[in-house]
Write a structure and sequence with these properties.
Elements (H helix, E strand, L loop, with lengths): L2 H16 L13 H31 L7 H4 L2 H18 L9 H17 L6 H29 L2 H33 L12 H24 L5 H7 L17 H24 L6 H22 L11 H10 L4 H32 L8 H35 L1 H17 L11 H14 L2 H7 L7 H8 L1 H21 L5 H17 L10
Helix pairs in contact: 2-6, 2-7, 2-8, 2-13, 2-14, 4-6, 4-18, 4-19, 5-6, 5-8, 6-18, 7-8, 7-14, 7-16, 7-17, 10-11, 11-12, 11-19, 13-14, 13-19, 13-20, 14-15, 14-16, 15-16, 15-20
Amino acid sequence: MSSNHQQANQKDSHQAVATQPHSFKQQPELNFWQIFNMCFGFLGIQFGFALQNANVSRIFQTLGASIDEIPILWIAAPLTGLLVQPIIGYLSDNTWGRLGRRRPYFLIGAIFTTLAIFIMPHSPTLWIAAGMLWIMDASINIAMEPFRAFVGDNLPKSQRTQGYAMQSFFIGIGAVVASALPYILTHFFDVANTAAAGEIADSVRYAFYFGGTVLLLAVGWTVVSSKEYSPEELTAFNAKPHQADDPTQVRHRTDKDYQFAAFIWMVIGALLTLATWAQNLDKQLYILSLGIFAFGPLQLYCALRLSRVQPTERHTLGMVFNVVDDLFHMPKAMHQLAIVQFFSWFALFAMWIYTTAAITSYHFGSSDVLSKAYNDGADWVGVLFAAYNGFAAIAAIFIPMLAKRIGIKLTHTVNMFCGGLGLISFYFINDPSLLWLPMIGVGIAWASILSVPYAMLSGALPAKKMGVYMGIFNFFIVIPQLLAASVLGLILNTLFDNQPIYALICGGIFMMCAGIAVHFVEQDKTA
């Protein structure tokens, strides 16, 4: 089917909806190719994300980072997501122009991510590399956040599991190639995977060049081949007479509520900061304690803004206030899914940070970044990351079918236990050539993490705030990553003699906890 024909079909469906009488209108289902096109950009986004996950720790170590410094250097990824995603979600909720609602942010994010990817492997020092990671991750988040809301906007509830599974499929395909690129370049094209001290290997540099190009082209395809519903059409799709305009707003917080909460957050943050200083604890704990403290002044700002207007005018108080206010008025299901996300993403971050160090030291017997053994092990990590993403792409095809058969909650539980047992088994497998076996379970869990929680969430969200709530939902991805970056190094150093293999075991346990927590989530019966 041609791109023009696909666009015409979707345009016709949009026009048909617009001509129906006012009030509730049934949102039309999209065909396979329309869903394909709207999700294809995620292939490019994941290309950049996978290059980052598989190679940034290697770049940091090459430029002189020690094992216990890697988590703090990785703090850029979750912290930029924490700041950028809700802002982009709010802005895209309130955008409508020639490119629509979400697509302008796809394009802007893709351009800046591509530039950062091209520059990253030329970083001359460790701190420049850390700075480029901040820029790269901020740009990826600009492009990534609206894609989640894009599915919620364009698909009816009956197709959202399929839409998020299609995103997972493209995430898997993109990450397979991206993660394995350094290995492929070395073993099939004779590109060097070692370099002089303080220099990035050619195999990594060329992989980043290729990845940046793919990212820009894939996102560009979604921008030109997909359409969006207008705000008026989205309102009509979600205008149900028996439902209030915004079901999440049950009781509004007052300025006094914000003042009291601000005091509590600042006291807790200050006490944790003081304890970290007095006990001479790991400096990475300051990230956690100061982050808690900083949420206090933010709420004081909201209290001040709210005290100057009537309660019915709170929607006029701007982006910062409304993002924070929406955070405190989340749907109940979103609160419950936050726990699931916490366990899931703590586990994933532990895996992304420590897999290279764990496999090179535990399975290849070297922590010397200049040695052949270390670089062979690091290349093998790229292959393993490609493997789990490949298995994820396959699993994404079957997740919607399994969810219909045994239910979406039990599907997620089974998938998360597969991933948890896979991570734990790294400790028991001695032969590096067999480490692809645990990646089957990890891939199944990864596909589920990328689709099931979003499918469960989207049915609980008001359509007019789909973007900002998807951005706020990212908090529960970011917070566990911040916690992992703050405490994993301390845990390994204190309890496990700084052996990174134990970080993978911790990750496996947390994944299984996520599989249990999903059973406490209340589902939208109409989804």
